[in-house]
Specification:
This protein has 249 residues and is mainly alpha-helical. The chain is built from 10 helices and no strands. It has a domain of 164 residues: MetI-like (MetI-like fold, Orthogonal Bundle), CATH 1.10.3720.
């Protein structure tokens, strides 16, 4: 297990090194303040963190996206289990999901802002609207993929419905939930960046665009670096959750 963690750490370090090399080459090739040097950006990032000018934006963005993930799991998993186990519910609700899921959710941002205000609620609900459909469909399909013979087998052991869920259904679909989270996180962070440019004064998205308006490209790239680190932290948290809850993978 420790060796696997070391390998994952080396992969992350190697990938980061490649990104910084490409970044530095781009800085040299363009020879413009628009793309500052990685070293200058890292130093500026450290200063912004120490002074707290960037820390609050990071904390608020992480709060928004983690809250959306937790709520989406709380809503999506039960509904997905219900659709997967009930043909009648699947026949009624799945068409609704098919209609709403492909719609770009950023189109609903003005509506969410009018209904839920200009603060955190509208932005969190916007991210939920992206993640929750992915989880619902993933859980539903995961339940349907469980062979019928498995249900017969566990019923012969005298397990009740809750025990069947806990010992067979949920362990079977949890790896698929982790995969759904990985797929939706990238889109969610991009959407968070977009939403934080409207009627707000906090968040990494606001910080980046404000620095762009102020023509402070070093701080702008420091904000981009912060958003990248936030994404890495979330992905690593998902990896940790997978190791803890799905040790058989």
């Amino acid at each position: 297990m420790r060796t696997q963690k070391n390998v994952q750490g080396y992969k992350t370090l190697f990938g980061s090194l490649i990104v910084f090399i490409i970044w530095y080459l781009l800085h040299i090739f363009l020879n413009s303040n628009i793309v500052p040097a990685p070293y200058e950006t890292i130093v500026t990032f450290g200063k912004l963190i120490m002074t707290g000018d960037l820390s609050l934006h990071i904390i608020i963005s992480i709060f928004r996206i983690t809250t959306a993930i937790v709520i989406s799991l709380g809503i999506g998993i039960p509904i997905g289990l219900w659709l997967g186990l009930s043909k009648r519910a699947d026949a009624v609700l799945s068409p609704v999901t098919y209609i709403l899921y492909p719609i770009p959710k950023v189109a609903f941002l003005p509506l969410f802002m009018m209904l839920f205000g200009l603060g955190n609620s509208s932005k969190i609900i916007l991210i939920i609207s992206i993640i929750v459909f992915q989880i619902i469909l993933t859980v539903r399909d995961g339940v349907k993929e469980i062979p019928t013979e498995y249900y017969y087998s566990v019923k012969t052991l005298g397990l009740n419905r809750w025990q069947i869920y806990r010992n067979m259904v949920i362990p079977a679909v949890f790896p698929k939930i982790i995969s759904a989270l990985r797929v939706s996180i990238g889109v969610s962070i991009a959407t968070l960046f977009f939403s934080e440019n409207f009627a707000t004064t906090y968040g990494i998205g606001y910080f980046i665009m404000n620095c762009w308006v102020m023509v402070d490209y070093i701080q702008m790239f420091a904000g981009i670096l912060a958003m990248s680190i936030m994404g890495i932290v979330i992905f690593k948290a998902i990896d940790l959750m997978e190791r803890k809850l799905c040790p058989w993978i």
